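Fold it.
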Amino acid sequence: MPHPTHAPPIPARTIAPPAELSLEARMAATEAAMTIRLEEAAVAYEVNTAHIPTEPVDLGDIVTLPLTPTLQPPTPYPTPVAALLQRAHHRLLTGGWCSGALVDAEGARCLYGAIHAEARGDRSLEARGLEVLMDAIRRQFNDVDSVPSFNDGFTSGRIPMRMLDQAAGLADARGL
């Protein structure tokens, strides 16, 4: 059988021009491509940072004001419980915070000690202030059984004083 010297011709096909994609189809294709790129970037980030130890940061613990005795009290809340909690917060800012005692040797107070001092003997007002403070605390810390145990669980007064400030806002919002 003789070998052909040329390959037989390929029959010509008519190739249709590509159909133009609609705007929605182009957007869907772009979204799919971007999703793939973002997923690849996320994996690369995790791989590249896996060796770096990190802890969550609470900005409330970082952003602070200077604790000086010259701090002026803010405009008082118009409601009695909110005003009590605000005065207790100011007392801790100016007089100092402590744990393990109502009042320490330098005159610093715990949360309960500040509320007790600012209530000026009004047991009903003191009890309502402590109740609102516990509500504010339990919004962020579920396993707390009392104000003193919450206070004594910290070595710094930042979080307890922040909770006292939030409780004052909560009492004002409730009209107490």
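The two ends are 109 Å apart (CA to CA).
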